[in-house]
Amino acid sequence: MKIIIVKDQNVGGKEAFKLVEQEVDVGKLKTFGLATGSTPVTLYQELVNSSLDFSQINSVNLDEYIGLSAEHPQSYHHFMKEHLFEAKPFKQNFLPNGLAKDLEEECSRYDKIIQDHPIDFQILGIGENGHIGFNEPGASFEGKTAVVDLTDSTIQANSRNFEKIEDVPTQAISMGIKSIMASKKIILLAYGQKKAQAILETVEGEVTEEVPASILQTHSDVTLVIDEAAASLLTK
Ligand code: PGA
User: Fold this and answer.
1) Active-site entry in 63, 106, 201, 227
2) Most exposed: 26, 57, 184, 218, by fewest CB within 10 Å?
């Protein structure tokens, strides 16, 4: 794992941008794996302000809430439109359909999309509990796209974007850890003290399904872009 420690989220966005730019410049980015949440916002701002052209690049997102339509203001479809896709058109944008009637079929459809569009470069955030995508502690490292129950801590953390905690969906469709690990290159972003314990366990802890992000230790091309607060518990 390569670790880049930055002062804050704004500098983190600029560092991560440079890594994306390199891939686009050498023509290696055909499918871009994207994440939602507050963490990647400064990276997306850098992308929006850049002259990078994504019109020949596909995107595949990690997850979507079950029960929210693409137009719902808290859906991840909406988030991506607002933060990136409206300003930067891609060839195609893929996200799971949170309103699919047959959720199992939707998971298979999404796996087929990932299979047909192998991810070259995956952006990840991390949950305070070490989740990646919505793969919560205990999720199988061999897992593919699945319907997942969100843990109380994730619901609590995400409730800041909803009017009240009861409005937070309790389930999501998430790309599995096996698909995330199949990405050729991965960048994990984390900012703030609240992420420090998860970062410590991800980098220095044992590789265990109890800390989903710890599997990244076994990937050959992972870069962490984290701020000083998120790095504050690292000992090495
Ligand atoms: P956050 O979420 O960027 O809003 O902190 C990250 C995550 O839960 O993966």
Assistant:
1) 63
2) 26
User: pLDDT tens digit string along 11-65?
Assistant: 999 999 999 999 999 998 999 999 999 999 999 999 999 999 999 999 999 999 9
Determine, yes or no, domain membership for 233. no
Q: Which atom of ligand 1 is nearest to the CA of 154?
A: 8
- Cα distances (angstroms) measured from residue 198 to each of 15, 121, 189, 203, 204: 21, 22, 12, 9, 10
Rounded to a whole number of angstroms, the CA Rg of the chain reads 16
CA 197, distance to chain mean position in Å, is 18
In a domain, 154, yes or no: yes
Residue range 174-223, pLDDT digits in tens: 999 999 999 999 999 999 999 999 999 999 999 999 999 999 999 999 99
Look up 129 and say whether it is catalytic: yes
Q: What is the CATH number of the domain that holds 143?
A: 3.40.50.1360
Work out how many domains the chain is built from and give that number.
1
In a domain, 128, yes or no: yes
Domain containing 88 equals 2-227
Structure letter (DSSP) for residue 150: P
The side-by-side arrangement of strands in the sheet containing 146-149 is 63-65, 171-174, 146-149
